[in-house]
Amino acid sequence: MATALHYEDVSVGQDIPVVVKGPMTTAHIMRWSAAMENWHKIHYDWRYATEHDGLPDVLINGSWKQHVLAQVLVDWVGESGWVWKMDFQYRGMNIPGDTLTAWGRVTGKSERGGYGVVELEIGLKDQNGKEGSPGNAVIVLPLTGGPAVPYPFDPAVLN
Amino acid sequence: MAVDEQVNHITPEVRAVIGAQSEWTEAAHPVEPSEVRRFFQALMDPNPRFWDEAHAKGTRYGGVVAPPGFPVHAFRRPADEMHDALAAAGDPDFDGLSRALRPGLPKLPLPLSGVLNGGYQYEFFSYPKVGERIVCRSTYRDVTQKQGKAGPMVLVLIEDEYATADGRPLLKSLNTMIMR
Fold first, then answer.
1. Which end of chain B has fewer CB atoms surrounding its CB within 10 Å, N or C?
2. Which of B96, B120, B169 sits opposite A41 (nearest CB)?
């Protein structure tokens, strides 16, 4: 088990460990679509996607990408912290053949209510470095020697 | 070249739906281990908190949990729903989905048919455990218009609150749907 992450371990400008997925194939897309029961043809019918909807190919599901963004944060904070907030925009399409890297960079930190609050920039870059899902996140970490972050998480503890 | 008149889609009828809220709706079935398994396997996320009961019992969650965003996808077709959405598959415009906008909310009186997902803001409170029932309530938070390259776009902001049936908050989501 990895050592628990504490607020003092984190510095502004720090890159968190990335999560890499891919190269993605049509089978990966179909597996997610089936798990979601999402029968939208843009994810598995090449002809529909390209000829009817004018897309470059079938598309990797946005819902899959959002969970990869959550994973990079959850993996980093481990069991001691809490992924409190995340936001992201769908700016770019991703298609079979893409390898996606979920990344995060610490942009700010502050103590609130005896806990550490850490802000990050996050995103999901393709193999060419193109950012398709830019966003932000806020996580809550315990201070060294401080109380554990409560679970279920209640934002009122930060007041 | 025709004069490109700016159409204002934000009519009083559209404005009237802002604040409209659905009832709390319960997912058709509780969180199932195999549903969670398909979810994390398709994510390629091997975290043992999703599947290893012995490991999960030792965490503060007290048992196996679903991934944080799972509640957003917990609303599946109930077993007794005999209407098959795929029956419309012969229609060239059939997209396999009929739930882009939330059930339980009034339809937006807009002459626009294209719907794009613009993104999400999430706030997490706890994770659902296997066997728990998930409920959701949706609210139209705002409807605004922006001028895009290809004409006006209407941004629909929908808040979804997810909780367990016994009232433990799971997550709050703010979704921007782009209509044009």
1. N
2. B96
Q: What is the 3-state secondary structure (H, E, C) of chain A?
A: CCCCCCHHHCCCCCECCCEEECCCCHHHHHHHHHHHCCCCHHHCCHHHHHHHCCCCCCCCCHHHHHHHHHHHHHHHHCCCCEEEEEEEECCCCCCCCCCEEEEEEEEEEEEECCEEEEEEEEEEECCCCCECCCEEEEEEEECCCCCCCCCCCCHHHHC
Query: Which of B136, B127, B137 shows the shortest CA–CA distance to B170?
Result: B127
- CA quadruple B142, B147, B149, B150: dihedral sign: positive
Contacts A35 to B, Cβ<8 Å: 35, 38-39, 41-42
Nearest CA-CA partner of A143 in A106, A112, A101, A120 = A112
pLDDT at B34 over 50: yes
Question: Which of B38, B43, B122 is opposite residue A86, by nearest beta carbon?
Answer: B122
The DSSP result for B103-163, as a single string, is TTSPPP--S---EEEEEEEEEE---PBTT--EEEEEEEEEEEEEEETTEEEEEEEEEEEEE
pLDDT average, residue stretch A17-37? 96
* B103 in contact with chain A, both atoms CB, cutoff 8 A: no
pLDDT for position B95: 62
H or E segment and range at residue B12 = helix B12-15
Within an 8 Å CB–CB cutoff, is residue A35 touching chain B? yes
Predicted-complex ipTM score: 0.95
Burial B160-175 (b: 16+ CB within 10 A, else e): bbbbbeeeebbbbbbb
Going by C-alpha positions, the residue among B171, B51, B55 that lies closest to residue B120 is B171
Measured CA to CA in angstroms, residue A63 lies from A28, B124, B141 at distances of 13, 16, 22
- Distance, in Å, from the CA atom of B93 to the CA atom of A133, rounded to the nearest integer, reads 27
